[in-house]
Amino acid sequence: MVYTVSAEAGSRDAAKAQITAKFAKVDVKVGTADKALSTAPFKKSPLLQTPEGHIVGGNTIARFLAQAGSVKGLTGTSAYHTALIEEWIELLTSDLQAPLDSWYLPLVGVWSYDKKKEDAAQKAVASIMDVLEAYLLHESFLAGHKVTLADIIAVCILQPAYAQLFDEAFRKQYTCVTRWYLTCVSQAPFQAVFKDASLCKTPITVKDAPKGGAPAAPGTPAQAAPGNAKEQKPKAEKAAAKPKEAPAPKAAEEDEPKPAPKPKSPLDLLPPSTMILDSWKRLYSNSPSSNFRETCIAGLWKGGDIPNSPNKEHFAGFDPEGFSIWWCDYKYDDENTINYQVMNKVGGFLQRIDYVRKYAFGVMCILKDDKGQFPIRGAWIFRGQEIPKIMLDECYDMELYDWRKADLSDEAQKARLEDMISEEAKIDGLEHVECKVFK
User: Fold this and answer.
1) If I label 48, which of 158, 298, 331, 361 is the partner at 20 to 30 A Cα–Cα?
2) Helix, strand or coil, per DSSP, at residue 430
3) Which stretches make up the GST C-terminal domain (predicted)?
4) What confidence tens digit (pLDDT) does each residue in 313-360 have?
5) What is the DSSP code string of 214-235?
6) DSSP conformation class of 284
7) Domains of the chain by range and CATH?
């Protein structure tokens, strides 16, 4: 059966319905239905038409679709789990969606702008983001280890903000929330609806608001504006006073304080190593596939000349005093059922740690088991004896993996590393589908 949702295309409520339907495997179409609205008791959208009657309200429609589909668990697997999901939906709808709308909608010309209201809205948003940050420090999702209706509705509430309000400086205050958000929007049901889930670079301001009012941007329902139509039209802005001329710069530049020198990375302060990581990367890249093991793998342990090196460079070999090797296993393999989605997940992780390229080399292997899942297994070479602290502090993905240090006295572990670097057809007895390399 195909359910019809009457909602403004691109609105938040439409997104809630469409994403939930894709997770639940329910067929829905979104469009206007004036006739249906005229016969509905509340005569308002969003509205869902079912054989039993009409249902009104974005969260209510999403809840119905989650329960109507063949995939169960989106609304809970027990009384407590269901209550936890509903608790998050109620909290975020009342305490986050409302202030976000008060912050965002005036900037896109839907509501009139008021600086005091904007400041109050930003403070309220920060308060709830603090709650989310503390909670998601130890949790992968809002209610368990998989996406539930709580995550779907929360992402739909936050999507316009992550796209147009939350710049990098703001996101750095909420790394756990951002990690969770990116984990969600990387999944196929979200991608199918949002299309572009890129993060904000420059926040919009009141100067960007269209004159004379404008429809809400995708993901935000224009009909959410309270009050009558007159209240929704932005007031004409007063002519701005001519700005005063900026004072002339000081003639003596030496009077201005010099910027403090950039502090060195703790990894640069480690004792010197006989191993040059960039040389290893060149050995890996230049080794021919016809004798990769004889050249690259043997060279990793014993050292060797780098093929086709213009200056006849020699790699000294792995230094266990200056470097360490680590394994990582993705914690939630049961999520990984779509090949390209898993590849995107790994690719996004590697993009977000570009700042450690100087100190790290890694191979991330995407495998396939007999359940149709795609486990992710990785092997990493890090400068020093620990995982770089900056990765643990700033990369949202790190806690999605179990990390453990390799024991190089164990020949089986050395052989596993060699197989992963060589991209063998089987890793850990599983089919090796794809390998992504960080170098």
Assistant:
1) 158
2) strand
3) 78-204
4) 899 999 999 999 999 999 988 889 988 888 888 988 988 888 899 999
5) -PPPTTS-GGG--S-HHHHSPP
6) H
7) 2-68 (3.40.30.10), 79-232 (1.20.1050.10), 277-438 (3.30.70.1010)
